[in-house]
Amino acid sequence: MTYKIAVIPGDGIGPEVMDETVKVLDCVAKKFGLDFHYTYLKAGGCAYDEYGDPLPDVTLETALKCDVVMLGAVGGPKWDELPVDKRPEKALLGLRKSLGLFANLRPAVLFPQLADACPLKEEITKNGLDILVVRELTGGIYFGKRATEGDVAYDTMTYSVKEIERITHVAMKAAMMRSKRVCSVDKANILDSSRLWRKTVKEVAKEYPEIQLDHMYVDNASMQLIRKPSQFDVIVTGNMFGDILSDEAAMLTGSIGMLPSASLGEGNIGMYEPVHGSAPDIAGRNIANPLATIKSAAMMLRYSFGLEDAAKAVEEAVSKTLDQGFRTADIAGRERNIVSTKEMGDAVARNI
Ligand code: IPM
Ligand code: MG
After folding, report:
1. Is 217 in the same domain as 130?
2. Are 48 and 88 in the same domain?
3. Out of 243, 272, 295, 330, which one is annotated catalytic?
4. Which residue in 270, 263, 264, 314 sits closest to 290, CA to CA?
């Protein structure tokens, strides 16, 4: 069986971290006798430069014919002045929406080897940290009606019961396989869309009597994440709150350079990308951390291909690489042995 993977390296450090990920996947293919077929596609600023469109039809059409999409990152200052429908971010949002990827899973796990890269006091994280942010990805304020009229501009946050129900089911099912706790984050003291969110989450939760469900306002949740992160297991939240909280959760693990993500829908196609962006300030210097993208590939093996052994092999190889002391600059902490993007990729590949 051939697994068809659309590879979209994108902009900035995207191509660098993607090269290392493909390197690792090639080793996985050899070890497990798998056949990965890669189709390289352009999206983001580089696609705008070539096609005048951040998400050209050929990219979308070809991606739809593949089993999964692996994406590096998009964006950069070069394209900052473009009108909103030409900006690189448009490619990302367009892919998510067109592929129907409404559920974004962002696991934040603190590796014990990186404990000193975590900005929190040791006593707060001594029992480790393992949070899964389940972010709604195709609704909310990202996709609501917006306009600029003279010197007034607005964006609208809209959620339907159906949209809330399906993301809640994803969170509940994920929690059933973990510690059976879900915290739903909203701003129900202010927003109508959040009140509907809370009511709907409560309804859906009745189908999962074993789950302990809590609700938290987003401002409090962002504080609690720092104060006592261990109180969280699965966090389910809307598009923008999830965007913000997942960056915060990422930093608790030492570096945003460590966080993978999976975006899933009702169909089989999934998209896998690191939580971090294109980091234009360090692009092209062979210093970016490829681990978030490599770990995203592990999620792909697990969620889209059902290859649990291969997924574990990648995750164990990453862990072993950290044990061996390999650190890119972002996770260096007190470690002095700083390696390049390529050296990190090579080390993980060897450990496969
Ligand atoms: C993310 C990013 C994107 C988002 C941007 C680049 C559009 O921040 O994936 O978290 O806001 O969703
Ligand atoms: Mg973000």
Report:
1. yes
2. yes
3. 243
4. 314
Residue to substitute in 13, 82, 89 for testing ligand 1 pocket (most ligand atoms within 8 angstroms of CB): 89
Cβ-based neighbour number of residue 227 at 10 Å: 11
User: pLDDT for 255-309, tens place per residue?
Assistant: 889 999 999 998 879 999 999 999 999 999 999 999 999 999 999 999 999 999 9
CB-defined site of ligand 1, < 6 Å:
75, 89, 92, 243, 277
Kindly report the number of other CB atoms within 10 A of residue 117's CB atom: 21
The rounded distance, in Å, linking the Cα atoms of 245 and 156 is 20
Q: Pick the atom of ligand 1 nearest to 246's CA.
A: 10
Q: How far is the CA of 32 from the centre of ligand 2 (A)?
A: 34
Looking at the domain assignment, is residue 114 inside a domain? no
The pLDDT tens digits of the residues spanning 119-133 come to: 888 888 888 899 999
pLDDT digits (tens, 9 = 90+) for 158-191: 999 999 999 999 999 999 999 999 999 999 999 9
Largest CA distance in the chain: 60
**Token pair for residue 167?**
């993301």
Strand-strand pairing, 68-73 and 2-10? parallel
Question: Which of 97-101, 150-154, 254-258 is predicted with the least confidence, judged by mean pLDDT?
Answer: 254-258
Angle between helix 308-323 and 14-32 (nearest 10): 120
Q: Tell me which residues have their CB within 5 A of the ion that is ligand 2.
A: 243
Is 123 in the same domain as 239?
Answer: yes
- Is 335 inside a domain boundary? yes
